[in-house]
Write a structure and sequence with these properties.
By secondary structure, this protein is an alpha+beta fold. It has two helices and five strands; from the N terminus they run E-H-H-E-E-E-E. The radius of gyration is 15 Å and the shape is globular. The protein starts with a strand and ends with a strand.
Length: about 80
């Protein structure tokens, strides 16, 4: 049994958790959060937060960001 809960993220509710987790990234800022999590024209980021069981603080996360790529000359919707 895991000592962690893995919960779907919500950009509005979990903004402070995401910003806190990104504090070690050289380029992480509130404007980048808005760009990738709230205002991406292809759709919002999909992410999961890891929390110690029974606590609200996030200790990690995984995210997918919608992008459009060219594959074999075709434009396809993908995620990075």
């Amino acid at each position: 049994m895991s000592a962690y809960d893995f919960v779907p993220g919500d950009a509005r509710k979990d903004k402070e958790h995401v910003l806190a987790l990104g504090r070690h990234l050289p380029d992480h800022s509130e404007s980048r959060f808005r760009k990738f999590y709230e205002n991406n024209p292809l759709g919002p980021a999909v992410f999961v937060l890891a929390r110690p069981r029974g606590q609200d603080a996030a200790i990690g996360m995984a995210a997918l960001f919608p992008v459009r790529l060219r594959v074999g000359g075709q434009s396809v919707l993908a995620a990075v």
